[in-house]
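Dear V.,

Thank you for sending over the compound details. I've combined the ligand you provided, (2S)-2-hydroxybutanedioic acid, with the protein sequence from our construct and run the structure prediction for the complex. I'm sharing the raw inputs here so there's no ambiguity about protonation or stereochemistry in the SMILES, which I know was a concern on your side last time.
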Amino acid sequence: MKVTVVGAGAVGASCAEYIAMKNFCSEVVLVDIKEGFAEGKAMDLMQTASLNGFDTKITGTTGDYSKTAGSHVAVITSGIPRKPGMTREELIGINAGIVKEVTENLVKHSPEVIIIVVSNPMDTMAYLVHKTSGLPKHKIIGMGGALDSARFQYRLAEALEAPISDVNGMVIAAHSDTGMLPLLSKATRNGVPVTEFLDEEKQKYVIEETKVGGATLTKLLGTSAWYAPGAAVSVMVQAIACDQKKMIPCSLMLEGEYGQNDICLGVPAIIGKNGVESIVNVTLTAEEQLKFAEAANAVREVNGDLKF
Ligand SMILES: NC(=O)c1ccc[n+]([C@@H]2O[C@H](COP(=O)([O-])OP(=O)(O)OC[C@H]3O[C@@H](n4cnc5c(N)ncnc54)[C@H](O)[C@@H]3O)[C@@H](O)[C@H]2O)c1
Ligand SMILES: O=C(O)C[C@H](O)C(=O)O
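Below is the predicted structure of the protein with (2S)-2-hydroxybutanedioic acid bound, written out as C-alpha cells.
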C-alpha cells in the first residue's frame, strides 16, 4: 500500500509518523511546496525506523507529483492552519486554491486514488474535492469526526472520572466550532448510557468543551493541533489499507442521507478497501435532527464562497 501525504507540516508529518509506527503500509510519500522540507521530514522520520521498529519507507519531494504515482490513498493536509481567535472558515480564501491544485496533481498521477481531506474548513474542502477531482464519491473522505469523537471521549472520560477505554461516543455534523454534534444520547460507559452517570451541568460541559476542542488547543499552542489529527488520519488510512470495515464518522457527500443533498457533512460510515463502503443511518432525536440541519445550513453558506 502506497500512501501520499501532501503537506509535510505539523499534521502531515504526524500522519506519516503514526502510519509508519503502525507498520501496515509499504510506502509513504510526503509532498510539500517548501524546498527540501518534505525531504527533510522524511529523512528525520526514517531515522526513527530502527528505533521504533517499523519497515515503512518514507520519502519526501518538493512538488514532484510523479513520485506519488500509483498511490492507493492520499491525504491532503496542505494549507494554512488557524491562529488563536480565528475560525476554520476564515481559512477558505487561501486553502481552497491550494486544495484544488493539489487535488488535480494527485488525480493526474493516481487516477484510482482515495483522498482523505484534512485541510480546513474541512467540510467545504471535501466538497471542493468532490467538485473538482472527478473521483467517485466513495473515494473522497473528509477527516473531522474521527478526531472530534476522540476529543468527545476524552471529555467524557474526564467528566466520568473513568478510563478512556471504558468510554464510547461519536460526533457527527460539521467540523466547526458551532456545527459539531456530539451524540450524547448514544454515548456509553461499557454499554451503559453516560446520561445515567452525568448530571445536566456535566453533560453540557462535555458537549461545549468537545465543540471548541480545536479552538482550545489553538489558543494554547498558538497554532492548531497535530498529534490527535495525525492519529485520526492514521486510523482512517489503516481502515482502508487493512479493509477493516470500521465505523468512523467522516465528512461525506450526502445524497438524501440525513435529509441532506449536495453537501459534505460528518456522518458515520463503514470504511474499508473501497474507501466509503456505506453510510450508516443512525436514528437521531428531534433535537439532534434540528442541530444537524442547522449545521448543514452553515456549511452550505461557506460552500457558497467557493469558485470552481
Ligand atoms: N480536519 C481536521 O480535523 C484538521 C486537524 C488539524 C489541522 N487541520 C488543517 O490542516 C491544515 C494543515 O495544518 P498544519 O498544522 O499541518 O499546518 P502547517 O503550516 O504546519 O503545514 C501545512 C504545510 O502545507 C504546505 N503547503 C502549503 N501549500 C502547499 C501546496 N500547494 N502543496 C504542498 N504543500 C503545501 C506548507 O508548506 C506547510 O508545510 C490546516 O488547514 C489546518 O487547519 C485540519
Ligand atoms: O482547530 C483547528 O483549526 C484545527 C483542526 O480542525 C482541529 O480540530 O484540531
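A first observation: Residues 92-109 form the longest helix (18 residues).

Warm regards,
I. M.
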